[in-house]
Amino acid sequence: MCLCKIASQFKVGGEVLSVEPYGNGHINTTYVAVVNVDNVNRRFIMQKINTTVFPRVGELMDNISNVTRFMANIVKDNGGNPEREILTVVPTVDGKTFYTDDKGDNYRLYIFIEGTTALQIVEDPRVFEGAGCAFGGFVSVLNAYPASSLYEVIYNFHNTASRFQNFINAVDADKVARADSVRHEIDFVLRRAGICDKIVNMLADKSLPLRVTHNDTKLNNVLLDDKTGEPVCVIDLDTIMPGSLLYDFGDAIRSGCNTGLEDEPDLSKVSFDINLYESFAKGYLAAIGASITIAERDMLAFGSILMTFECGMRFLTDYLDGDNYFKIHHPMHNIDRCRTQFKMVSDMENLQDEMNEIARRYCSI
Ligand code: ADP
Ligand code: GN1
Ligand code: MG
Predict the structure, then answer these.
(1) Which ligand is located closest to the Cα atom of residue 251?
(2) 25-29, 192-196, 293-297, 354-358: which has the minimum mean pLDDT?
(3) Ligand 2 atom closest to Cα of 255?
(4) Which residues constitute the domain of residue 235?
């Protein structure tokens, strides 16, 4: 079935004029659909859901539609504009949250949030402080959301110990005979085996609280107003699940404090910018206020290192497995991504004391 026909299966209110590829996420395939609604062109985001990553699409879409409805009500009560500040799931003509085509592929549709941009790299520290506010505000609002009603759409998503085991399995299997060419990176991981279970153990013994978290807080998952640079909407809600606040804080630092792109092959352009760390921490900690615990505050720096390490290890694992998980655009893509993450980890390890000091300075408890 052609893409325009697929878009027409949703309640778009008019004739679908075009559907074109859009954005640059690593997981789903994103399109922009243009629809003539009463002679005005309206845009929608249509996504083919990656069912290798998200096999239980019904559970995934239940999480997203329930959480967005919950958040939209809060925005409405506060006099805001829910269609701009929160993702809106557009139902299919028969009232479902996603559409399955004749090939078994699954699609969903969101209202396109106009006048916004998703950045790949931070250009202005104040914008990153705003992103911190947005992600901190996101977790705060979801404090009131019943965590037990959420499906765990990807088991052990940020369980770094289990990610480490997957990595060891990939090294041992060496399916596509790449291990010898990345010994340096493999050793980088092995030397840090001891850090992998720290957060999972603290969640298990309850010294860290379990919250409802976003879990994929990379910079391009917050839409920013084109005119003001202010955050408008947190997007990419696929991985909302119970987790640690450190996952959200750490993943945002991983992606936003990099002076280069995530897949920059020239490592001289890649470094950890501690001033950006300070900007984000300021925004995040102001938004989360006194609901953060001391244990969380004291782990923000470590969590940033661990999330960056975990992501690098996942890229390396995928490279060793033959590139099955993340979309790649050239054969070295995953290893380039892995190397930028490990460069960031090394930089942060050297600056951990300063990072801890910044967390204490901006924390209200
Ligand atoms: P992925 O899971 O593949 O990262 P995302 O949901 O993050 O997919 O979408 C990919 C990109 O599409 C985003 O980075 C953003 O640029 C754009 N995008 C997604 N949803 C919207 C929306 N509702 N309005 C405008 N742009 C969007
Ligand atoms: C993926 O979907 P996207 O591109 O925002 C991945 C994240 C990684 C990120 C690395 C579901 O995020 O976990 O941190 O790539 N999402 C999933 O860029 O695995
Ligand atoms: Mg995304």
Answers:
(1) 2
(2) 25-29
(3) 18
(4) 125-362
